[in-house]
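Task: sequence in, structure out. Protein: Lipoprotein signal peptidase.
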Amino acid sequence: MKASLRLLLVVVLAVLAADQLTKYLAVSRLTEALDGRSGLSRVSGFLSEQNLDNDPPVEGVFRKNTRPYRFIEDYWHFRYVENPGAAWGMFSSLPDAARKAFFHVVSLVALAFILVLYRKTEPSQKGVRVALALITGGALGNFVDRLIRGYVIDFIDWHWRNQPGMRWPTFNVADAAICVGVGLMLLDSFRVRRPEAVATPLPQGSSPQP
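Result:
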């Protein structure tokens, strides 16, 4: 296996595993959805398509954040949110079938585009490869959510003392990986690249100086 492919697989699988594990913990600790279950039943409950608390599905009504956790008071909470749209809830008002189809197509196109970019990178662009792998893992993590449930599980809530306009949209590990990857790409774009030295041909009949 090529080193570039190995790097891609390692980073993508690590991000995907961390993302799904933390989402499982969010459902388990921040809601009552898995209460009363044990062992594999909890995992199967987490992977259920929707409404883990066995309520009948209701359009636009999501599981309540029953047990929020204040990690750093006034700044960092963990609270369960089901996001049927994109960041800031964009496109969440679309009809269910249209919204799911839209995000499935967009996710697949984005993943394909990122992989094409990755294949075009040079061995010297290790930072870019790590960045693209992080973005791929994050996009795949949220795509798995939408594929299984029709919405993305978010649970990290950053805000400033509950001041209006001072709350970052609730996010997850996949979103964080995407943001870090984009940040690394931006840093790489500002990096000064020295032009490679071009060998100047010697005049005919001359010899290089010692």
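Residues 3-30 form the longest helix (28 residues).
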